[in-house]
Amino acid sequence: MSNTKQQEGKAKLPYEQTHEYKKLTKKIQFKTEELQRFYYDILGVEKYPLEKITEMLNDGKHIYSNLSTHYYHSRENEMKDYMRRFAMYQKYIEKKGYSHDRDNAMARVISLNRFNLDYGNLYLHIYAFIPAIELLGSEEQVKYWVPLANDFKITGSYAQTELGHGSDVQGLQTSATYDVNTKEIVFNSPTIESTKFWPGGLGKSSTHAVVYAQLISQGKKHGVHAFIIQIRDLQTHKPLQGIEVGDVGSKIALVHNDNGYLRFNNFRVAKSCHLSKYVDLSDDGTVTEKVKDSTRLVYGGMLKLRVNIVKII
Ligand SMILES: Cc1cc2nc3c(=O)[nH]c(=O)nc-3n(C[C@H](O)[C@H](O)[C@H](O)COP(=O)(O)OP(=O)(O)OC[C@H]3O[C@@H](n4cnc5c(N)ncnc54)[C@H](O)[C@@H]3O)c2cc1C
């Protein structure tokens, strides 16, 4: 039986009842079912068949929110509403036995998207923070951090971009200086341009961040490296001493995402924060590449995130 026939007589999905949807579908000159089928085919029907997505949407109606009713919400309410619905969504997919299937990121985004839950303050946690640890962390680091993040015991942001350095990642100025006496890394934001700016989920929500900074050890610069850093207290949620963090303010779009800024003032973290799958920082401060051109691999985190965004478009 065709999917169209299968769906006939079924209750309409929430988005199908909106004024905008009805208006749009009246104007459309082509068969929407065919487009829909094509759309889901390229996502991998065997894993996420249309019937399963439709079933999810019907079962999870309580999570869905019609955004046309949000026009007059305050930003605070938008963020609270997002978090409330994300928590419901999380419980729902756990109960259903679905996973955060990041290997098939598109399928997951589609489901977040369908519930109007895309690009909120936990988007980066799932699509940039955890993947960056998986990509750049040693086996031991992945084993320690990823379960904490998957269980939402910590939530993370991805802090690469600075006010003065976006595409020019090599030019980042946040410094990470290894102190051989204490076996700690000291983070500093030496200039205004070095202020981390834009990272999603950073302004108010995240307890941790993967931070990109220039590693300095034995008095030498070693290029941009990635570090996992706790930025807020897990009980009080207040920024730790030496951290200045906040929200970049109102935006036209993505109001439910607390894109943030971050500055360091002699902020000390144990050496183990250095993500060391491809490059090692030894106790005496020697930096050894485990693979050739390891610093290029550091850019993989953002690359993965952007590839996902291109796939969505
Ligand atoms: C909504 C939003 C969310 C974001 N979230 C995050 C996040 O979670 N984490 C994070 O780290 N960052 C984040 N960013 C930052 C984003 O990654 C940067 O904006 C991006 O890397 C571009 O940097 P930039 O804005 O400084 O622009 P620039 O690098 O200054 O670029 C400006 C323009 O110049 C062009 N350009 C730059 N260099 C060259 C060149 N060499 N040759 C030719 N043209 C060039 C660019 O294509 C662009 O059109 C976010 C940004 C936005 C807008």
Automatic annotation (TrEMBL):
Give the source's domain of life in one word: Eukaryota
The family assignment reads: Belongs to the acyl-CoA oxidase family.
Q: Which organism is it from?
A: Stylonychia lemnae
| Protein name per UniProt | Acyl-oxidase family protein
What cofactor is needed? FAD
Checking Gene3D superfamilies in the record gives: Acyl-CoA dehydrogenase/oxidase, N-terminal domain, Butyryl-CoA Dehydrogenase, subunit A, domain 2
In the UniProt record, the gene name given for this protein reads Contig13203.g14089
What does the record list as coiled-coil region(s)?
Answer: none
Q: Which Pfam families match?
A: Acyl-CoA_ox_N
Q: Name one GO cellular component term.
A: peroxisome
Alphabetically list the UniProt keywords.
FAD, Fatty acid metabolism, Flavoprotein, Lipid metabolism, Oxidoreductase, Peroxisome
